[in-house]
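Fig. S4 source data, part A: sequence.
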Amino acid sequence: MNVALIKFLSLLTLAICHCDAINIKPRSSWGAVAARSPARINGAVDYVIIHHSDNPNGCNTETSCQRLIKNIQSDHKGRRNFSDIGYNFIIGGDGNVYEGRGWGYQGSHAPKYNRNSIGIVFLGNFESNKPSENMLQNAKDLIAEAVSGGYLKENYTLLGHRQTKATSCPGTALYNEIKTWPHWKNI
């Protein structure tokens, strides 16, 4: 798929889901490099998987968040040989939600769940402290948008990354927070 078509589909997705209410920044806002043959997901998925980027300082300005996201994409495409940044959406400490792979694309964030999930990463390390209330609300709003837009089943299951593989992600403080949200399930 060419870059122009990917950008068009991303803009069309934003227009259809009315995501401007939660301030989703498109891939172009952070200077995303084109994905290599992104796999599509048709229909609503069953899971939301929550991650943290594990960067000690996170980000609190648009510029610092964009730089961090570009670095993550570079790592994922380079060292990890993913087709793109692994996550569908990124929650920044600057008050924005950033489009990663976006709606309807298979992520590379949780083995065995990638084909049936939306991956959301919080920028920062949330081992000891949970994200800001604004970041948490942005994630909740994004999940609600996924359901209303038909990308996520109404009876979805919410998981922390550590529930899908041996990792400390999404950090203990964030994990303890999401365990209080509707749809979290102990598996």
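Fig. S4 source data, part B ends here. The longest strand covers residues 152-160.
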